[in-house]
Design goal:
There is one protein chain. The protein is an all-beta fold. The chain has one domain: Immunoglobulin-like (Sandwich), CATH 2.60.40. It has no helices and eleven strands. The chain has a six-stranded mixed sheet, with no helix packed on it. Strands 3-7-6 form a three-stranded antiparallel sheet, with no helix packed on it. It is globular and about 50 Å long. The termini are far apart.
Length: 162
């Protein structure tokens, strides 16, 4: 299963291709999620459990390849300490039978953590930039084995500071 975000570019991070959106602090986003099968029909997610978490990285360089719809990241470093997930980050089922849910990204994805870059801005971005990998955690019971399947769907957000 993969998630496709409207208006997203792709990034490959640690061998995993994911959708990536740029966000600015002070702006909140509600992203609609539609779970469908390979034929495009809605998947009933009524019994699923959804959650969200964030892992933060510092990125020294960010360049764009508009022709390929790609973002290229250079010198990526895992932030330490990570801190808690941001206040308000949420994923919730809207209609289980219709396979719809939403991901809410709060207006401060970094939650004011002291180890995240702040001003000054260099060419309209913080230096270094923050890459926040938001992961949607999905738990569902397998119809055949009755065991719990768990999948993690990563989404990349490059955080810009205003």
């Amino acid at each position: 299963m993969s998630l496709l975000l409207s208006g997203a570019k792709t990034i490959t991070f640690a061998g995993t291709e994911m959708q990536c959106l740029e966000i600015y602090t002070g702006e909140a986003y509600t992203i609609n999620l539609n779970f469908t099968d390979s034929g495009g029909s809605a998947v009933d997610i009524s019994t699923w459990t959804l959650g969200a978490s964030v892992t933060y990285y510092s990125v020294e360089t960010v360049t764009y390849n508009d022709d390929l719809g790609q973002i290229n990241l250079g010198n990526i470093t895992l932030d330490s300490p990570q801190g808690a997930d941001p206040t308000g980050l949420a994923v919730s089922i809207v209609s289980g039978p219709a396979g719809t849910a939403y991901l809410y990204v709060p207006n401060d994805l970094t939650d004011g953590a002291s180890n995240r870059p702040t001003v000054p801005l260099v060419n309209g971005k913080s230096d270094p930039s923050v890459l926040a990998i938001v992961t949607i955690n999905i738990q569902r019971t397998d119809a055949v084995s009755s065991l719990t399947n768990e999948s993690k769907e990563p989404l990349g957000f490059i955080v810009r500071y205003q």
